Amino acid sequence: MIGICVFFPAFSFAQRCASAEYIDQQKLADPSFANRINAIENFIRNQNFAAKITGEGGSLIITIPVVVHIIYGSALQNISDAQVKSQIDALNRDYRRQNADSINTPSRFKPFAADINIEFALATADPNGRATTGIIRKPTTVRSWLNDDKIKYSSQGGNNAWDSKFYLNIWVCNLYPALGYSSLPGSSADKDGVVISYKAFGTINVSSPYDMGRTTTHEVGHWLGLKHPWGDTYCGDDLVDDTRCREILQPVVQIIFAPPAIMELWATCI
Ligand SMILES: [Zn+2]
């Protein structure tokens, strides 16, 4: 259900999302990582979400504190507080299903699309309990960043993560060539979080079609445990019951922003 309301509209730029490639790299580097992911997926599979949603406590809203690490090599990359806040607003619209384009949800998914009662807020206290805006600015001499996690370490020119038990870490930087990538639940704490290009973060001072904040919505979906609808393999399983099996998208269409109605046409595995 989560996949429908926040992930489906946003994943059409798969070539711009380096998460699957990144996770494969992590599994190669640390064989125990795959076991941790499998254990978490089994835990999720055994939850009775339908009962929890309709039962007591179903309206509880979870607010996730966010720290945004702006790692900049130029004034252009040092994005404004307003741009950061526009991204937090976009996240909240998408995850609370208050996004205006929710009316475009394909009819077969409308019975399942839902507000998932998750909100995001810039952190107001740092790991030491001191007041913070939730926005960290740090200059760097690194010209661009890959999906190799160097951004997550001060020693590499980036900035160390805040404790992932208490914060969603978002690094905003000159990421290239991808627009974003994310860890999965089960990643090590120092690598937990999402990395987004400054060119695709927020809804102001960003060029179309990446000016809706959906790159971050998409990557936060991964951070919460969602896979791409094609399960990151040919006709794979995304472990979400209400998305049908679908082919992996062809490279030529992966980079094209397509509306959900078009995405429906690509379901050819069943
Ligand atoms: Zn992705």
Question: What descriptors fit this protein?
Answer:
binds zinc ion; 270 residues; globular; alpha/beta; six-stranded mixed beta sheet; single chain
In N-to-C order, the SSE pattern is HHHHEHEEEEEHHH
Structural domains: how many: 1
Q: Give the distance, in angstroms, between the N- and C-terminal Cα atoms.
A: 20 Å
Q: Spans of 5+ residues with little confidence (pLDDT < 50)? A: 1-14, 250-267
Q: Which percent range describes the beta-strand content?
A: 5-15%
List all distinct small molecules, including ions and cofactors, that are bound in this structure.
Answer: zinc ion
The geometry reads as: globular
**Over the alpha carbons, how many angstroms does the gyration radius reach?**
18 Å
For the record, the CATH class is Alpha Beta
Description:
- The chain is an alpha/beta fold.
- The protein has a single domain, classed as Collagenase (Catalytic Domain).
- The protein is 27% helix and 13% strand.
- It has eight helices and six strands; from the N terminus they run H-H-H-H-E-H-E-E-E-E-E-H-H-H.
- Strands 1, 2, 3, 4, 5 and 6 form a six-stranded mixed β-sheet that branches.
- Helix 2 crosses helix 3.
- The longest helix has 15 residues, at 31-45.
- The two termini are 20 Å apart.
- 35% of the residues are buried.
- The protein binds zinc ion.
- The site of zinc ion has 6 residues, from helix 6.
